[in-house]
Amino acid sequence: MVRKKTGRDNAAREQVSFKEAIEAMVMAEEKCYVYLNGKPMGNVEDGKGFAQEVRKNRRLGLVSGEINVVYKK
């Protein structure tokens, strides 16, 4: 078993099987991370599509023209 921390309280932990931990790591590797001003905001499954959507919304004026997006595979 692998223990997963669930919040600030070190005493509160959830038990996760080794298989579940490996599957979670693989799923995370397949996602693209999203940062705003250098801070991690989350991740998306389709990084290329996300970048295209941000660019489209920027051109339409729906998001600030100051927002930049980079997609690296």
Automatic annotation (TrEMBL):
Keywords annotated in UniProt: Nucleotidyltransferase, Transferase
Entry annotated with the keyword Nucleotidyltransferase: yes
Protein name as annotated: RNA polymerase Rpb2, domain protein 4 domain protein
Enzyme Commission no: 2.7.7.6
Molecular-function annotations in GO: DNA binding; DNA-directed RNA polymerase activity
BP term (GO), one: DNA-templated transcription
Keyword Nucleotidyltransferase: yes
Every RNA polymerase Rpb2 domain range: 34-72
